[in-house]
Design brief:
mainly alpha, Amino acid/polyamine transporter I, 72% helix, 0% strand
Length: 578
């Protein structure tokens, strides 16, 4: 099968979905009002509530949700063949993710910019709200651990990426001051910043002393590191500490100082990166060597395929970003379609090229099946296969392999970093809200809540790996991340459906993908938690069993409560903004 043909089919479906389906949802279902005063204007504070140009906000939103997950999930899911992953990415993006991301943004804008967890109180009750907040808290904690793990390991594996990534931070701060204090335009400075990053990437990939290789500094793989640990574990520990310091600062700064300008730079980086990869696809014109459908003996595709693709098709974390940060920056309500739905489409475009980069990497079908011999092998090699495959596509444009590898790793790290500090910011909001609910106002203080978020994330990701190492926490949680993330998306779609029903509108656009998603996710989670991870399971894991059991029980409780509201019409007060 020709990869270009598959890419064209996917991109055309995405374009039609945005052009027609999102317009239908915006005008006929959500009924967006260009004159509605958004929370960004009503509660403007210069820190979290900041009216923002829709292109800049799309950059923030897109790069916050486009972390490593839409790359890693599809790169693993091709284990069952490229066709099932491809179909779920395009259909899930158009009919599920688009409605979910767009809907949670519109719902939050009509509710003072509050998170979906808080809104659950008005729609389905106080108890459901607290259960939902705890699920969200566990999810963002896992996001923090997983993405910190990914970034640290990529820094270790690709040391040439460190300099370009860290150069971006002062450049973003400079752009923030230039735009918001001196009223300059953001486009040209952000393009200059991107050019500087890529120049640094080219130079660092060719000049060894510009590569921050902590493992080599400690004597190589066999070298002695800190606290009696090996060089690799010590390097991992150092990067986690640096990342936690960074996200503490980034998540407490006003959004215009770092978050918005850095994300705007990254939105250009994503456009450039996707442009390079899709142009490389055209110039190399590769054939797909992976089988369309691969009959796996160890792990069935049903229902695990939909959980594994995760953010590549739909993600509950997107709803947290939509209702947590993006809704507080939306200038006009009609911008929600551009920011929310098009952000989901961008995620789908990224997932599509992830699939194509991996399934065209191998010289033959036999080579693919050998690399993807088991689901465990797919998990272990997914991200590395994408980096190699994407580098090969970039090489079709004449980009040297070392430079291409560095640029691809920079793209992944940059997106993972934006997701990480947005997630810590969201975790701060949730901790503060739980603190106020349970009469612990000290937790509502920004720096206290952020400290709790950062320390908990660091503790989780630094769970020891073996007797002499750090760093299995983030990776161990990845199987649970997929199910918890999809479960959150299903519950968020349920909230949208309840909201639309209370407004007397057609709620099928949210209800149908909600039913499908919850059905698949609950089955997958039940199988994993109670048949695999439990003490009596085939892959006993108490960490996943405990976290998974809590999330599963809370989710079922919320679903039953919301189902009662949907079917019996329990009288709940509509959100005050409506």
């Amino acid at each position: 099968m020709n990869a270009i043909l598959v890419a064209v089919i996917g991109l055309v479906v995405f374009a039609l979905g945005y052009r027609y389906y999102s317009k239908f949802v915006a005008e006929r279902i959500f009924r967006l009002d260009p004159n509605y005063i958004t929370p960004a204007h009503k509660y403007k504070d210069g820190v979290d509530f900041v009216p923002t140009n829709r292109f800049v906000l799309w950059g923030h939103h897109f790069t916050s949700v486009a972390g490593a997950a839409p790359i890693l999930g599809p790169a693993i899911a091709v284990y069952w063949g490229w066709l099932p992953a491809f179909l779920w990415v395009i259909l899930g993006t158009v009919f599920a993710a688009g409605v979910h991301d767009f809907g949670t943004l519109a719902l939050s804008v009509r509710n003072k910019g509050q998170s979906v967890g808080t809104i659950a109180d008005r729609l389905i009750g106080q108890r459901a709200k607290m259960l939902f907040l705890f699920i969200i808290l566990i999810l963002v904690l896992m996001v923090n651990a997983v993405f910190a793990w990914v970034i640290s390991n990529l820094f270790i594996k690709y040391p040439a990426s460190v300099l370009p990534v860290f150069i971006q931070i002062p450049l973003a701060v400079w752009i923030g001051y230039a735009v918001y204090k001196r009223q300059k335009k953001m486009l040209i400075p952000s393009l200059i910043a991107l050019a500087i990053m890529y120049i640094a990437a080219v130079v660092a990939s060719q000049v060894s002393w510009l590569q921050v290789d902590l493992v080599s500094m400690m004597g190589g793989q066999e070298g002695a590191g800190l606290f009696g640990l090996g060089a690799v574990s010590s390097a991992f520990f150092i990067w986690i500490v640096i990342l936690m310091i960074y996200v503490y600062i980034a998540s407490t700064l006003p959004v215009w100082k770092l978050l918005q300008p850095r994300d705007f730079i990254n939105s250009h980086q994503l456009v450039v990166g996707l442009g390079i990869l899709y142009l490389g696809l055209i110039f190399t014109n590769p054939e797909i060597t992976a089988p369309a459908v691969h009959a796996a003996n160890d792990v069935s595709w049903f229902p695990l395929l939909f959980i594994t693709v995760a953010c590549g098709a739909i993600s509950g974390f997107h709803g947290l970003v939509s209702s947590g940060t993006s809704s507080k920056q939306l200038d006009k309500e009609t911008d929600a379609r551009f920011v929310g739905y098009l952000g989901a489409v961008g995620e789908g475009v990224l997932a599509l090229i992830s699939i194509l980069a991996v399934v065209t990497l191998f010289p033959s079908t036999a080579a693919f099946t050998e690399a993807y011999s088991s689901f465990g092998a797919a998990n272990a090699g997914g991200l590395g296969n994408f980096v190699e495959g994407a580098s090969g596509l970039a090489g079709g444009l004449g980009i040297p392999a070392s430079v291409a590898t560095t640029i691809v790793s920079i793209i992944i790290i940059s997106f993972a970093a934006t997701t990480l500090d947005s997630s810590v910011r969201l975790m701060r909001y949730i901790i503060a809200e739980i603190g106020m609910e349970y009469k612990m106002p000290v937790l509502a203080k920004a720096h206290v809540a952020t400290s709790v978020a950062v320390l908990a994330s660091a503790a989780l990701v630094l769970i020891p790996k073996g007797p002499n190492g750090f760093g299995s926490g983030g990776y161990l949680l990845w199987p649970l991340f997929g199910t918890a993330n999809q479960l959150l998306a299903g519950i968020s779609l349920m909230l949208i459906a309840v909201w639309l029903k209370k407004l007397g509108r057609n709620y099928m656009v949210a209800l149908i993908p909600m039913i499908f998603l919850l059905f698949m996710t609950l089955i997958a989670m039940f199988q994993q938690v109670f048949f695999e991870w439990a003490m009596w399971g085939s892959n006993s894991n108490m960490l996943l069993f405990v976290f998974g059991s809590i999330i599963f029980v809370f989710a079922v409780w919320i679903i039953l409560t919301a189902f009662n509201v949907l079917t019996r019409g329990v009288d709940r007060q509509l959100p005050v903004e409506d």
